[in-house]
Amino acid sequence: MKKPSTEKRIALGIFITVVVSLMYHMSYDARLNSKFIIHQLYHNRDTFLNAIANGETNIGIVELAKRYSLTPYGFSKPTIWTMDLPLNTFQKNDAMPVNIIENLLLHDFYGRRLGTSLFISSVRTNDKKEKYLQGVKNEYIDFYMSKIKHALDKPPVDQYVHRQALYINSYLTWIVHFGDEPSEHGIKTIMSMCDMMSRQLNGTYIQSAFEPYVLNKLGFYKYLKTREYKDPCCFNAWAAAGYSFDDMFAEFAHNVFGMTIQWTYVLYRMMVENVRTHDISDAANYLLSDPPAGVATSRSKDGSTLVVHDLHNICRRAKKVEFVNTPICQSKCPFFKPKWTTAKSETGCIVLSNQPLYESDPNYAVFGSGERRCPGEYLTYRFMVEVSKHLKPYDITLTGGSEFIGVRNIKLYKFTTNDM
Ligand code: HEM
Q1: 3-class SS of residue 80
Q2: Model pLDDT for residues 27-41, shown as the tens digit of each residue
Q3: Per-residue pLDDT tens over the stretch 303-320
Q4: Poorest-confidence range of 60-64, 99-103, 301-305?
Q5: By CB count within 10 A, which of 47, 86, 219, 322 is most buried?
Q6: What's the CA-to-centroid distance between 37 and ligand 1, angstroms?
Q7: Torsions phi, psi of 367, nearest 5?
Q8: What domains are defined for the chain?
């Protein structure tokens, strides 16, 4: 029999390597999802049966954890609720349902996660947060804001208000992280990451096992790893500050949860309620009336329990915000660090020293508190003020039904045909 040529053998070798590595990555996710399903059946069977018996199949993860004794994947004991502020950075390690983290990120040959992010890490040493903040400097924010009018003017792609809000924010998420105009495919990829998280948090076991993002994430990761980014954007700022690519990917993936989903909820509300926030005090008070994140989470000291900080109820105790729009720390400040232009505020928040911060009332916990406080807070106020300048009133109709954006269950509104 004639032996195959060297070229053919090389091609076959490459083909087998590609197939095996694809199978490996897919099988890791398949193994994870099967472990997740077994965990749910073992720990939460009665919870889900009770919920079904009480006709509460569509109440979502947060409500379910509040009403029933729920053990999230990655924990061995039921969730505990607290009115304590989320202050302890040591308790941040993997402090969210772990299947979400695992499905967002990639793994090496031994199943170890590639990269980590501030959202799931207790580490704030080696200027980790200061480095992160380089992506949201004032001059960067000015550039991101210059894209908002264009984003809002984009032709509607969906008849539902929340889907259009998600589309707009997926576009903006791309700009903030990569600096250039996304393709429609790029926008859809970020939307599919959000849909994966919303479904995995609130959906059924079976739904969460097969998600388009999970099936395509290896290709997306490789595409991002090999391309160049346009200034200004988070990826270039983080790389210049010393981030590895895997950590940048992890920060980006978690920002799709921390930024895209939160902004979508805010924009949806502004569109539906036809609200405008003219300055950052307005923006802070609007968020306070219905904090988008609702909760922050910690891991108990022994690692067994997900502790849920009830930001929604903590914020109910907060006074009306009167934001003094002056930077937190001028260059004369003794804590000023020329390298990162950051400072530690009176309540322990690590912030850019030329951005303002409201910390008169500890119950204003919309963005968390202390060292863990959100680095995207000022950017979010600027986003809301900029949106308010360009948002036109929409003609919309309540259609009935509801859907989850992240952990929030929202009422469905459609644009009337004139806007479509
Ligand atoms: C309406 C918008 C937003 C809300 C309500 C929000 C809310 C929060 C909350 C409550 C925390 C504290 C979590 C904890 O203590 O564990 C947090 C942390 C965080 N947020 Fe945001 N966020 C928003 C927008 C953003 C944006 C735009 C970004 C990125 C540009 C961002 C990135 C982060 C990161 C990286 C953390 C982790 C900080 C740390 O642990 O040190 N967020 N956010």
Answers
A1: strand
A2: 777 788 888 888 888
A3: 999 999 999 999 999 999
A4: 60-64
A5: 86
A6: 29
A7: -110, 20
A8: 16-323+358-415 (1.10.630.10)
